[in-house]
Design goal:
Layout (H helix, E strand, L loop, with lengths): L1 E8 L5 E8 L10 E4 L12 E3 L2 H4 E4 L23 E3 L9
Antiparallel strand pairs: 1-2, 3-5, 4-6
Length: 96
Amino acid sequence: MYQIVISAEDAAGNFRDEDFFVIVSQDDAPPTNLLCNTNVNATLNGDCQRFITADMVLEGDFGCANESDFRVNIVNDDDPTNGNILDGCGTSSSTR
C-alpha cells in the first residue's frame, strides 16, 4: 500500500493537503515450464542457411518470458560466429 499526498496552493495563498492510499495488485505470473526439443529438423534456404528461433528448440509455456528473452547459439555448423543462423547444407547429427 502506498500513501500519496497532494499539496496545492492557489493564487490567494490558500493551501491544502489531500492524501489517499493506493493498493497495487496483480495476478500471479504464469509459470515458466520449458523443455528442450531432442531433435529439430530445419529446411535450409538457397544459401544453405536457416534462422533458428527459441520457439523452434523449446517446447512448453514461456510464462512471462518472451522468445526474445532467449539467445540461440549454434556451435557446430559451418560458421559458429553468426549466432542463431544455421549454416551448411548436408550437415546432420543424430542421437542414438
